[in-house]
Amino acid sequence: MVILLLFVTLFALILIGFPIAIALLVSSLVAILFEGNIPSVVVLHQMVGGMDSFPLLSIPFFVLAGALMNQGGITQRIFDFAQALVGWMRGGLGHVNVGASVLFSGMSGAAVADAGGLGAIEINAMKKRGYHTDFAVGLTAASSTIGPIIPPSLPMIIYGVLASQSIGKLFAAGLIPGLLMAVALSVMVYYIARKRGYGKDAGFALSAIADTFKRAALSLLAPVIIVGGIVSGLFTATEAAVVACLYAILLTGFVYKTLTLKRLIHVSSETVETTSMIMLIIGAAAIFSWVLTSQGIDTWVATFLAKTGASKVTLFISITLLLFVVGCFMETIAAITILTPILLPIATAAGIDPIQFGVIMLLNLMIGLLTPPLGMVLFVLSRVSGLTVEQSAKATLPFLIPLLIVLILVMVIPELTLWLPNVMYPNT
């Protein structure tokens, strides 16, 4: 009864229009009050406990680094380099869209940052070259999901904290699936380009590649510093976030000289706002997750699956469907915070590696960002493009196919996620 009340209250508040953090918090409080025998201090204890983790300190620094790079003109340099590199292919700017997202993902670590930062540049450029708006919006939405898969990744940091897994290994695990997503989306771009008659947007010229690379070289060095430092053991993920932030300030403020005091104040206030929202979601989701586990939902799910004799394939399908539904209604960070303590023990009991499971969970939730009613990327691109959320969702549908194919590959071939971490961290 408590669990039913918890979910009914949650979905009612979401449908009314409450922010996800408030909906999680209020529904948890309603369930706790209904239970009647839980001290109110437990709520504060669980909320603070959910946010009290050293690796989570990396969140504001990664957010600030991404915002600085957006405001400092780095996104345009990356886009120009990607255009010179792959713009000569059929459907050129479509491939540029994907390539720029791969390059930018090594700096932002968030799909919404990718959509909001590169999204406007990509969509406007594609529309000017005669690409249909639905194609530009759908592809931009799909390519933005590469950001949280290729390191560094804010959702992976949160999963690593909750699952007690090495964040460095998680970062390494996401690299191959992220590149597979880029390849799969590029294949879809080529198919649609042939179908709609899109041509090339630039000729292949080594001079153009060299020139744009020279302009973007220092920007492209950011992910090398961040990921290389973590993998080599030079610094932790939290320290890497600080390094990324300092590098972004140095690059935009002293090298490119595009960071003014006014812009710095603006991005700093944006960072405070975004970080506060993320941490509130984590805290509220920690209470919600605690209520679920205190009511034995994890034990019930495990027992149910054991009684039905669920195989690993059945378990993958069940978890995928659950995550897909949750992703349609819930913000990614909240979903990870709530579901990791419930689903991870079940997955590991079935022989699924926690690192592989983390990538699977994240891929599922990224697809959820592209689906109504609460897909955040759809809302961002709707504002950027002028399409309605419904039109943006319809435009994204064809690009869900390559993403789903990559998800299936990651589920059935564990080596896609485990080979690189095992090579980089052989003794752990």
Mind sketching the topology for me?
Blueprint: H1 2-16, H2 20-35, H3 41-51, H4 58-71, H5 74-86, H6 92-108, H7 111-128, H8 133-144, H9 154-163, H10 167-196, H11 206-232, H12 237-255, H13 261-294, H14 297-307, H15 312-329, H16 332-349, H17 354-368, H18 376-385, H19 389-412, H20 415-424
**Approximately how much beta-strand content do the residues carry?**
under 5%
Q: What does the radius of gyration come to?
A: 21 Å
**Helix count, per DSSP?**
20
Overall, the morphology is globular
- Give the class from helix and strand content and strand pairing: mainly alpha
Number of strands: 0
Please, what is the average pLDDT?
81
Number of domains: 1
- The oligomerization state is single chain
Head-to-tail CA distance between termini:
43 Å
Low-pLDDT residue spans: none
Instruction: Report the order of strands and helices.
Output: HHHHHHHHHHHHHHHHHHHH
List descriptors.
mainly alpha; 0% strand; 428 residues; single chain
Q: Can you characterise this structure?
A:
The radius of gyration is 21 Å and the shape is globular. The protein is 80% helix and 0% strand. With 428 residues, the protein is an all-alpha fold. The chain has one domain (39-424). The longest helix is centred in the middle third of the chain and has 34 residues, at 261-294. Helix 5 packs across helix 11 (206-232). The protein is built from 20 helices and no strands. The mean pLDDT is 81.
Short account of what is shown:
With 428 residues, this protein is an all-alpha fold. 80% of the residues lie in helices and 0% in strands.
